[in-house]
Write the structure tokens for this entry.
Amino acid sequence: MMKRILEIQLPLGQSAYLWGARKTGKSTYLHAFFPEAWVYDLLETDTFLRFTKNPQEFREEILSKLKYSRGQTQVQQFIIVDEIQKIPLLLNEIHYLIEKVKVQFILCGSSARNLRVQQANFLGGRAWIFNFFPLVYPELQELDLLKIFKQGGLPAHYLYDENSAKESIKAYIEGYILQEIRLETRIRNLNTFMNFLDLVSFCQGDIINFSNIARDCGVSSKTVQSYFELLVDMLLGYFIHPFTKNNKRNLIMHAPKFYLFDVGIANYLAKRNITELQGAEAGQALEHYLCLELYAYLKYNRIESRLLYWKTKTGLEVDFIVQEGKIAIECKISKNIDKREYRGLLAFKDNFPEARLIMVALVTSPRMVKIPTDQGTGMETEIEIMPLEFFLKQLWAGKIIHA
């Protein structure tokens, strides 16, 4: 079993939510991290039916087990409830048990949508929120970009051979994503949603135009926006919004970008077969992968900074902005960086002089490029050029983005 980097450390009496897309490995992780916990898996049909019919039975059973268990008042007793969104009413019973009994819950889920729709009891701060993601760089034993682009980071897909991974990704889309959408929503025409999903797979890293996607799908812009919201609710994708600090009317683009939660699934949907680390498709996949690493790093380290992008109306762009503009990161598939590829970073520096500029590429070694700011002044702008793996090591060591 691969060692995951998340550590859920809770003081006595504190409970937690663990949110993550299906098959990211949440249940396996929780069984390993809390081996003495009592586990209720709501994917089990008998457990689901029993507590759907009589939610109070859950409270009664926990109280009975506590009464007859040894030393329950001296040690922390954790209770894992897997796929909590399946029975929102259980949260009322859990609220009672948190308040009245010395037990702690780990509530695991792959979608918060059903809880919101049914106005469920979110426990009012009694449960800290943790996130779980597909495999990230520190959890892998190697950095095999072509494998990541084809198979993605879901453990069951990444650890398979290529052909098995392809079949598993297909089953994941058809057997989980589409079926969960059918269960959680009133979408009747899944073909329309599948067309939407295919279109989204081609838009990774592009600014989203809701009207264009709606026209291509044959539905309204409002429907397309609801589809995006559904993907976000199911933890299957993330919006990356523009950085608008000190916004100037002629500078910033306002529409968000969108990235699916797994680069392998995106490439499968888009029917991309990337066989070499060059070209537009590989560049788009590299940007997607770097986005997911940055997003996971912020969440795992509980850093409040948002992951944003910056683009002017004239087309100058920086892929990722973090820590309120203190760090600007551009990503290129190139092994040789042309000076024209610095233009977005230099434009950002003109507007935010304190920013640290980083170019991540497939170069062989890190270096510092110094570019004259104005002819004759002697002032220079520094851009750090980092090989991808060097950047990832620096990132996960806490040397790029600080808490």
Notes: The chain has 15 helices and 13 strands. The radius of gyration is 23 Å.
